[in-house]
Amino acid sequence: MKRCLPFVVAVLLSAMTAEGRTLEEVLASITPASYEEAHTNLFVHDGMNRGFTGDLDGNIHRVPAHQHDAARDFILEQFEAHELDAWLDPFWFTRFYGAVNYTYTNCNNVVAIQRGIASNAQWFIVGAHYDSVDPGQFSQLSPGADDNASGVAAVLELARVLSDYTFRHHIVYIAFDAEEKGLKGAWHFADTYTTNNPALTNLIQRADVGGVLSLDMLAYNPPGPNHNRVRIYGGSSSSNAPVQVALRHAFLEHTEMDVVHSGSIAASDHHPFHARGMDACLLIEYNVWSNPHYHRTTDSVDTPDYIDYVYATELTRAVAAYLMREAEILLPPTLSLTSTEEQDSFSLAWTAQSNAVYRVDYADDLAPTTTWQALTVITNTPGDAVLYWEDHIGPVMQRYYRVEHVYEP
Ligand SMILES: [Zn+2]
Q1: Is 236 within a domain?
Q2: What separation in Å is there between the alpha carbon of 282 and the centre of ligand 1?
Q3: Is the confidence at residue 354, as pLDDT, over 70?
Q4: How far is the CA of 216 from the centre of ligand 1 (A)?
Q5: Are residues 272 and 347 in the same domain?
Q6: Rounded to the nearest whole angstrom, what is the distance from the C-alpha of residue 217 to the centroid of ligand 1?
Q7: Could you tell me the residue range of the domain that residue 187 belongs to?
Q8: What mean pLDDT, rounded, does the chain reach?
Q9: 75 in any annotated domain
Q10: Do both 279 and 401 map to the same domain?
Q11: What burial letters (b/e) apply to 189-199, b meaning 16+ CB within 10 Å?
Q12: Do residues 396 and 302 share a domain?
């Protein structure tokens, strides 16, 4: 005998902060237009600069000049707008130019943390320096559109998109200061916020760092045989270092870019982390060594046919895919519901991550006092994108469901 079911409602409580989406849909929300908007807010036009004063008297401190602090403040505002735990990380340093030892003060990294939910969460650190070279260093007032507003825009896009989701592991987003003066911001962070001493429980244990990425120069992609290529440089020279393998994998799976492992290099912000024993690498445009605008006044968005936003967006998406996989995003499921012929059972289907764990609950009403009943906990098969569960509801006339992506069953 067929029973008539007036209506059945599916409820998806796990989608309260972000609608159900697939990994590819999340990546697609990073667009050339959104990337460009972040980038052009970083003072990347002719005549602009994010460096320091260049007083030749060593007794006069060199301090941030031009648009340096305005860029810093914009980055902090963006992190805060995404409701991340964000702050300025101040430091100072000295450095010789010629025979003169200059003191640089009022330097600030901009740091933001997105906490993961796992009790044994690892740390994934993605950073890009926001300072550009200044006349006190190279006699060039460089806007640093490629070096390195391009990397900072990527970090801002990652923070904007990924902060809507829950992750198992922690993510740290950093805009480093004073990279051009000798990786000073990255050294400061690595030595101030990470430790090998287990007694220092307020710091990041280096053994718990799953990977560190420096994004430095992501937007120069001239036509020719090396078009749409990227370089990965290690801290470690081995291309089998886990961070390099995982980043290459993200490129191969989600972009059309060719990845070229280029050995190791110490000339960017991944290096201090590598030197302190963390697995770190650099992502950089393939054509960096032939970039005619490198450290020059023409490293500007106003230089024709220079900044490639489509390319920079692809690189940013690959890094997002890396973080989603490695820091283990918990994508909310999108639930759909179909009745069977007999109409006394219902088949639930939802978008599911490979190997992820879901809990299915039901309730027979939606009053404020409703207690959800556990129906099942189910682990998806590796590789499957949709998961099904059939509920035999018997004589019940209506039923509500929710499916939540959980980490622990
Ligand atoms: Zn740089």
Answers
A1: yes
A2: 11
A3: yes
A4: 5
A5: no
A6: 6
A7: 23-329
A8: 91
A9: yes
A10: no
A11: bbeebbbeeee
A12: no
